[in-house]
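sorry for the late reply, my laptop died twice this morning and i had to redo everyting from scratch. anyway the thing you sent over, i finally got around to it. pasting the sequence first so we're on the same page, its 441 residues, then the predicted structure underneath. double check i copied it right bc i was rushing
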Amino acid sequence: GATVKRTSRIASIRVGEEMVGRVVDTLGSPIDGKGPIGGKLYEMPLERKAPGVIFRQPVDEPLQTGIKSIDAMIPIGRGQRELVIGDRQTGKTTVCIDTIINQKEFYDAGEPVFCVYVAVGQKASTVANIAKTLEDKGALAYTVIVAANASDPAPMQVYAPFAGAAIGEYFRDTGRPALIIYDDLSKQAVAYREVSLLLRRPPGREAYPGDVFYLHSRLLERAAKVINDDSIAKNMNDLPAPLKSMVKGGGSLTALPIIETQAGDVSAYIPTNVISITDGQIFLDGDLFNSGVRPAINVGISVSRVGGNAQIKSMKKVAGTLKLDQAQFRELEAFAKFGSDLDAATLNVIEKGRRNVEILKQAQNDPYTVEDQIAIIYVGSKNLLRNVPVDKVKEFESDYIEFLKGKHADTLKTLKSGKLTDEVTDTLTKVAKDLAARYNA
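ok and here's the structure:
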């Protein structure tokens, strides 16, 4: 057999500023053919204790995904862990890639959110496609891709998310916001099961080892919002020695783990584990996806447990009732399929719901700025589209936003700052009413 020697060092990955824009493997070696990674590199351990309670602060800053239905109804904050869960081919990766693309706005403004995309057990062609999409959209400039492809050994697939977390922690501990996507943890769990069974560890439920919960909890607990106080942050537990002099407070690591379900079974072992670890989940529904509602977010099952505090004030005011409205609509819609004689109030909810569904539809790789989102969701929630035919809502939306950008840029600016004054709502209402009259069937 092969000779195995020990290095007497703990498993670690070398991380630095120039890693951004590259594709690396679990050990941090570049695999994109662009030569070695330059600049100063710091050794970060793959396994590291999560920051203790004293080094954290509550989530209070929004992480804009650019996806209307998420930013309005299931808001995500910096430092949160939000699970993206659904069957295969329901758009889970798309939601996360769109979130990365949306951070370009902050990169251009000089306040980048550094993104880490971890691909576990995926086809090399898929990873290449994602890298190309990010490059075409100018998003690779602030993104690191960590890839452990389907052909890589199981231990590499198990440790890829930990390598990604170490890269994310480098940005988090130097006081900057970071976003990490684990795509996906089901494949990591399968690889971990393989390694465990080969080591003759006794199998548990679904033949996973007993500590598969701990595998995911210790990984996801590393996402945190670090306290703003530099002097406290400097004493963070388990800091790697090379980082000690560079530590700043106020950084964050937001995690979007992805889990693939089998036939919508959210109550299987791994899905329930990860749901219980994270601060909420976005559930993508195959039936919705196939009926053309994309992103196919099932509003009834999706929640965000901490993001509400992170929403900007203007969005909170506008989208307050949207989630409830849509959940009611979905309930009544199923009911309406049977009965024909519905009362006016029920019809009203259904008609409004149909238009809101249209408003919340969104094309792939087409993120919306937060002010555009608020402007269009305001129109939907105030039911100003009741005279616009459902199939014309999308057309109305693009005209409306274009008109606001051209004639009322100051209104959008106010919305972005988080203020929703009477003056702003009057402008939005007037523009929407004038425009809706044109579409009046």
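The chain has two domains: 12-311, 315-439.
thats about all i looked at so far, will dig more tmrw
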